[in-house]
């Protein structure tokens, strides 16, 4: 059985496309399906932000073919784990859950990290440095997650 993982931020153009691209590179696509979505509808159908595309490219990952979509309550049925980039995203996703089982699928992306407040900061209104910081946070969190997933499938 494939594990299905959804990365969620506000716009689905900066953080969650990076999270999707980074995790995909660390797992076997025959074992793990990774997708991303935004809680907002502003950017539906668009490519990731050029700054996210650039920072991913710098680290050898192509996210340019991704297209923005909005989170839908049907995602609770489709996905096993839903990772929110920050607490506002988490609250907005939880508000759409029908029951406790759906709520339990939702976690903060950085919930296991000792850093700061467990939030991936929104880099949209900042400079390029913010995107590198987001990349590093997501790379660490995805590395942990990939190790757990790879362990699950190695037994
Ligand atoms: P994201 O960043 O949630 O990481 O994709 C944002 C992208 C767009 C906007 C806000 C955050 N916006 O307000 O348009």
From TrEMBL:
Homology family: Belongs to the low molecular weight phosphotyrosine protein phosphatase family.
A Pfam family assignment: LMWPc
Protein name (database record): protein-tyrosine-phosphatase
Origin organism lineage: Bacteria, Pseudomonadati, Bacteroidota, Flavobacteriia, Flavobacteriales
Enzyme Commission number(s) from the entry: 3.1.3.48
SMART domains xrefs: LMWPc (SM00226)
Phosphotyrosine protein phosphatase I domain location: 3-148
Catalytic EC class: hydrolase
Molecular function GO terms recorded: protein tyrosine phosphatase activity
Gene3D superfamilies according to UniProt: 3.40.50.2300
UniProt keyword annotation of Hydrolase present: yes
Keyword line: Hydrolase, Protein phosphatase
């Amino acid at each position: 059985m494939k594990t299905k993982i959804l990365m969620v931020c506000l716009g689905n153009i900066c953080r969650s496309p990076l999270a999707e691209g980074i995790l995909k590179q660390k797992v076997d696509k025959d074992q793990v399906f990774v997708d991303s979505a935004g809680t907002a509808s502003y950017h539906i159908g668009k490519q990731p932000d050029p700054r996210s595309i650039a920072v991913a490219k710098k680290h050898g990952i192509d996210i340019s073919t991704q297209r923005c979509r909005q989170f839908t309550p049907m995602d609770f049925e489709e996905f096993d784990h839903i990772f929110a980039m920050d607490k506002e995203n988490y609250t907005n996703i939880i508000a759409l859950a029908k029951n406790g089982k759906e709520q339990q699928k939702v976690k903060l992306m950085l919930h296991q990290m000792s850093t700061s407040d467990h939030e991936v900061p929104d880099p949209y209104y900042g400079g390029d440095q913010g995107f590198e910081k987001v990349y590093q946070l997501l790379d660490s969190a995805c590395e942990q997650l990939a190790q757990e997933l790879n362990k699950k499938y190695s037994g």
